[in-house]
Structures are given as structure tokens and as C-alpha cells.
């Protein structure tokens, strides 16, 4: 009898444990509803907000996601983190995980490359860029400098900045091989690819007690540093539209607006420790990591027009304007 009770108790405990480890179904969002969402890394959650700044729903996770992107279908959220064993593909309209790619730990960034219909993941444990096809199969991998993280792609190349190294790897998307390497500052974070101008903007934290106070602009034609634009301190994210180029520096909580000739037009202090910027419903959206708010900013005046409270540690912003 005692043995039976012991086995029963252990079985119940295992079931509870396994149930707790599984991701529950999240509250779905209709497939035509626009939203802006934040991935909140201090509480493993995601807030979905509508165009009026009102919360649509909140998802809570059992996994520690630190990054992700919304796929081109407008429905699939691709979520990952260096401590997660795989990459999860959520459907917004069902609230369920549709697929998981078992990558192992170490994924710190990902991007869909339309020209080759593959997703590239940056793996800091392997120091590799790993390519996966639409069926979730790994097709290629490329060794990089230490801790590949920031990435951007055009039709022909994938550009990868190593966070702990001092090289930018240029991967040819036809051969999936590195064809060039460019010297960059260590601790590089944030990347803006300007295809028409054939240049790449790279931000960063700096090294040791010397914070980075400028944006490094590289010529993709000459494969060399072109100029440095002041943006103190620690520029970490960028956004460009017809109204200008916006740079977010989390070391000083500053948002800078440059014209397309790289001249500073305006600046404003926004949030507390902001890390991410995006554009939604005609407004710039900035996430304050420590203030735990979204800031809705007029792109012309840089006036903060509205704030929305979100979860702890908003680190990534996702935007869905319309679903075709």
C-alpha cells in the first residue's frame, strides 16, 4: 500500500512538472487586427497593444525568450533565446506553437531572408550563422567571429556583426560562404542597412568603461569605415523612413533624428534605458526597458503623444499593420 501511494504521488508530481514545462495556448488575436507587441524579458511575457494604445491581450511564457521577429505572413511569431533549447513558431491567430526547431541553446538573433526563402539564426555557442529552410531543416552553417549577433540582409548578402569580436562578416547568399570581412568596433549592437546608399550603420555599447558615443558608418562598396556620427551614448537601434533616420541611444535615453544626409535635426530624451524602436500607425514606437512603457512619438516633431504601460523589461518590438 505504501509503495502504491509512493508511486502514485511520484506520478502526479511528474505530470504536474511536465504540464508546467509545456507552453499553454495563448489568447489568440484575430487575423486582421493590427498590433504592436513587446517581448518583456524580465517576466517572460508579451504585451499586444492596438493602434489606440489599448491592451489587446498578454501572453505569459514558461520559456526565457529574448528575441524574435514576425514572419512575412503576418501571423507567425518566431521566438528564441540563448537559454531555450529551440526556436518556437507561434501562430498569433491560434495562440499555439505550430512548430519548434530543435537548435539547441545559443540562438541570439534571427532574420528571414526573402531572396533565398530561408531563416538565418545567429548561434553564440557555436559562433555560427545557421540557415534553415521552410520545413525547419538546417541546410547550411557558416563560422563567424566570436558571438555573432546583429544581422541585416539584402538580396545578395547577409551582414553579421560579432559582439565579442571585431569583424563584420559578409556572407554571399548564393554560395553561403564568407566573401569579405570588415574591421568593426567590439561590442557592436544595432544595425541599419541602407541599400540605395550602399552603406551600413552599426551601433554598440563600447568596451570596458568607455561607452561608445558614435554610430559607425561603413561603405559596402569599399568595405571600409566611411564616417562616424556622434550619438551619445550607446546607440543600439535604428529606424529609417521618408522623414529621416532615427537612432536610439540607451546610455543617455536619447532619440536622435538625422536627415538622409546624416545631419542631426532633432533629439529628445525618451523613457528609461530604451532598447528598441519601431514604427506603427504613423508613430514612432520606443520601448523603455526600465520605465516599462511604450512611447508613441510624432516622427516630425519628436513629441511624445502617448504612453502605454507594458510588462517588465520590454526589449523587442513587433509590429503588424495589416495582414494581406
TrEMBL record:
<protein>
    <submittedName>
        <fullName>WD40 repeat domain-containing protein</fullName>
    </submittedName>
</protein>
<dbReference type="InterPro" id="IPR051200">
    <property type="entry name" value="Host-pathogen_enzymatic-act"/>
</dbReference>
<dbReference type="InterPro" id="IPR015943">
    <property type="entry name" value="WD40/YVTN_repeat-like_dom_sf"/>
</dbReference>
<dbReference type="InterPro" id="IPR011048">
    <property type="entry name" value="Haem_d1_sf"/>
</dbReference>
Amino acid at each position: 500500500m505504501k509503495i502504491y501511494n509512493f508511486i502514485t504521488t511520484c506520478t502526479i508530481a511528474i505530470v504536474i512538472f511536465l504540464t508546467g514545462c509545456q507552453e499553454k495556448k495563448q489568447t489568440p488575436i484575430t487575423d486582421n487586427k493590427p498590433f504592436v507587441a513587446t517581448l518583456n524579458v524580465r517576466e517572460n511575457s508579451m504585451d499586444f497593444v492596438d493602434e489606440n494604445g489599448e491592451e489587446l491581450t498578454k501572453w505569459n511564457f514558461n520559456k526565457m525568450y529574448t528575441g524574435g521577429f514576425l514572419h512575412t505572413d503576418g501571423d507567425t511569431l518566431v521566438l528564441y533565446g540563448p537559454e531555450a533549447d529551440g526556436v518556437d513558431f507561434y501562430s498569433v491567430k491560434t495562440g499555439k506553437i505550430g512548430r519548434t526547431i530543435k537548435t539547441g541553446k545559443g540562438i541570439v538573433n534571427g532574420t528571414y531572408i526573402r531572396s533565398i526563402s530561408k531563416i538565418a539564426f545567429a548561434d553564440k555557442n557555436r559562433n555560427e550563422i545557421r540557415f534553415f529552410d521552410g520545413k525547419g531543416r538546417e541546410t547550411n552553417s557558416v563560422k563567424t567571429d566570436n558571438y555573432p549577433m546583429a544581422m541585416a540582409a539584402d538580396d545578395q548578402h547577409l551582414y553579421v556583426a560579432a559582439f565579442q569580436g571585431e569583424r563584420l562578416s559578409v556572407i554571399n547568399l548564393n554560395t553561403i560562404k564568407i566573401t569579405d570581412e570588415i574591421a568593426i568596433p567590439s561590442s557592436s549592437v544595432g544595425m541599419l542597412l541602407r541599400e540605395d546608399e550602399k552603406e551600413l550603420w552599426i551601433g554598440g555599447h563600447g568596451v570596458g568603461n568607455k561607452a561608445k558615443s558614435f554610430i559607425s558608418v561603413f561603405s559596402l562598396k569599399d568595405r571600409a569605415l566611411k564616417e562616424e556620427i556622434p550619438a551619445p551614448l550607446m546607440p543600439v537601434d535604428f529606424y529609417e523612413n521618408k522623414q529621416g533616420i532615427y537612432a536610439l541611444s540607451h546610455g543617455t535615453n536619447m532619440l536622435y533624428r538625422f536627415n538622409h544626409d546624416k545631419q542631426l535635426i532633432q533629439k529628445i530624451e525618451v523613457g528609461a534605458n530604451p532598447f528598441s524602436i519601431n514604427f506603427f500607425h504613423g508613430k514612432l514606437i520606443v520601448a523603455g526597458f526600465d520605465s516599462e512603457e511604450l512611447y508613441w512619438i510624432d516622427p516630425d516633431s519628436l513629441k511624445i503623444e502617448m504612453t502605454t504601460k507594458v510588462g517588465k523589461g520590454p526589449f523587442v518590438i513587433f509590429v503588424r499593420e495589416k495582414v494581406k
